[in-house]
Amino acid sequence: MSVLALVLVGVGVLAVIGVVVGVMDAAQSRAWRRVAADRRRNWEVRHGGGYYDSWGDEDGD
Hints:
Blueprint: H1 3-46
Protein name: Secreted protein
């Protein structure tokens, strides 16, 4: 097997892995969004809810 064929097979394998990971990620995205929304609601309950300005505690110049 030539080096060029080996490189092409390697690129093909990487492409197939990329497609498989993309499809699996798309299939799980709804579940991850639900988890993120639940975590955000829990955080808002613990910290008073509403918009949290992460820069609000800066002294400024």
